[in-house]
């Protein structure tokens, strides 16, 4: 197991596969690198893929302290520095897309091109999920809440033929206090003011039927980041990258190969 140590002394577990230019893959809130299981292989023939367990998850340290999406971006830099990588492409999904926004804004020299998947600018400008969705996730019946989350991630047709386990619904071994820290970090995200300063070529990709992180956030991001392109996956929900990988992965790969095309 490879480990990077942050400036504040936190040990971060990270994983690398493939060869070629570096590509950082950033998972969603309260998830480990397992978020990318079965998907990262789509990129390994062309890229040196890098994942890590956020602080508070997986094999990384779990300090009981405030977390932030901007802080998670600094953690990514610690991993890149440990690998001796000066510059990488970045593909962030869900909360990982929020982290990726800060990476590109705060460390422009480190980011070659940027892909923001099923994510939001946050703050007062971001489009929040509606109250019906919030209530379905907060219901006291834990099994019902878990099922509601799955149905926000995947279509019923896909769930009928893919019973799991599902790697996108959270780290099952994550302590409750770090789960709350992750939720607070994602909720507090607001990168609106720095988005116009992002210089990396950017692709915004989103499922059209995403209610968990509403699809209306995609044009907001694409319109706010200079020169950004947008790609919609018809019929896809939040985990578009997994269920619709035959459409999503080629779209991302095409962009990474030539981010100025189109």
Mean pLDDT score, rounded? 96
Radius of gyration: 17 Å
Query: What is the strand tally?
Result: 8
Q: Please write the string of helix (H) and strand (E) elements.
A: EEEEHEHEHHHHEHEHH
| Proportion in helices | 25-40%
Major beta sheet, specifics? Answer: 8 strands, mixed
Please tell me what the overall shape is.
Answer: globular
Strand order of the biggest β-sheet: 1-2-4-3-5-6-7-8
Q: Which runs of at least 5 residues are low in confidence (pLDDT < 50)?
A: none
Q: What separation lies between the terminal Cα atoms?
A: 40 Å
Q: Supply the helix-strand structural class.
A: alpha/beta
Strand content: 15-25%
Number of helices: 9
Walk me through what this model shows.
There is one protein chain. The mean pLDDT is 96. The chain is built from nine helices and eight strands. With 262 residues, it is α/β, with parallel strands linked by helices. It has helices spanning 69-83, 95-106, 131-138, 142-153, 156-161, 176-188, 217-224, 240-243, 245-257; strands at residues 2-5, 11-17, 21-26, 47-52, 88-93, 111-117, 202-207, 229-233. It is 35% helix and 18% strand. Helix 1 (69-83) crosses helix 2 (95-106). The protein has an eight-stranded mixed β-sheet, sandwiched between helices. Helix 7 links the parallel strand 7 (202-207) and strand 8.
